[in-house]
Amino acid sequence: MRIALVMEWSTSERNEIVYSVLKKVAEKNGHSVVNYGQFNQEDYRQTYNQNAVLTGAILNSGAADLVITGCGTGMGAMLACNTMPGVQCGFAVDPADAFLFTQINGGNCLSLPFAKGWGWAAEVNLEYLFEKLFVQEPGGGYPPSAAASEQRNAKLLAKLDKEAIRDIKDILASEDPDVHEMVVNAFAGVRYELFKADCKDAEIMAAVDQALGK
C-alpha cells in the first residue's frame, strides 16, 4: 500500500516527526510513504481546505491508497476531506480510534490532531496509533460478530459518497475564484511534482495541469 502524508502550515514544524514515525511503522508492515509536507511555515501556507483538494486528487487518481492528514484539532481536516468525492476520512486520537476506523469503516483517509493534545510522549502515542492502523487488513469488521453488517455499511457509505458528491475533475475545473485558488495552492511547490510522479489517471492529471495553466 502507498501512503501519502499531507499536513498543513500551522503544524508544519511537526512534519518531520510525523513522517519519520509513520515511515517506520508503515515500512515495517510492507507499505511505502510519500511526504507531501507542508515542510515549513514560510511557503504557501496550505490549509486543510487546500489539503482536502490535494487528498481528493491523490486518492481518486490512484497516486496513493491511504492519506494521513490533519490540522490543529484534526476536525477541520476531516470535515474538508469528506467533502471530496471518493474520500472516506476518519478521525483518530489514540490507537483504539485507529484500529476501529480501519476495521469498522475501512476508510482511505485518516485525520489526526497535530496541536491539540500534542504533549509529552506524543510521538509514542503516534507510533502506537499507526501500529494499530496497520495491524490487520482494513474492513474486517469489529466486533467479529458484527463483521458482515459493518462491511455492508462501509460499502453503502461508498455508494452514498458516489451519489452525493460530484467528480473530482469538476472540482479541479471550478470557475469559482475561491475554489480555483484553493486548487492552485493545493499543488504549490514540490507537491505538484510528487503528485505527477505517482498519478495513475491521465484525465485527472490533465485537469490539474489545466487548472495550473501548464
Task: Give an account of the 3D structure.
The two termini are 30 Å apart. 41% of the residues are buried. The chain is built from ten helices and five strands, in the order E-H-E-H-E-H-E-H-E-H-H-H-H-H-H. It is α/β, with parallel strands linked by helices. Helix 2 (48-61) crosses helix 3 (75-81) and helix 2 (48-61) packs across helix 8. It has helices at 15-28, 48-61, 75-81, 95-105, 122-133, 147-164, 168-172, 177-186, 190-198, 202-212, and strands spanning 2-6, 32-35, 66-71, 89-91, 109-113. Strands 2-1-3-5-4 form a five-stranded parallel β-sheet, sandwiched between helices. The model has no long low-confidence stretch (mean pLDDT 91). 52% of the residues lie in helices and 11% in strands. Strand 4, helix 4 and strand 5 form a beta-alpha-beta unit. It is globular, with a radius of gyration of 17 Å.
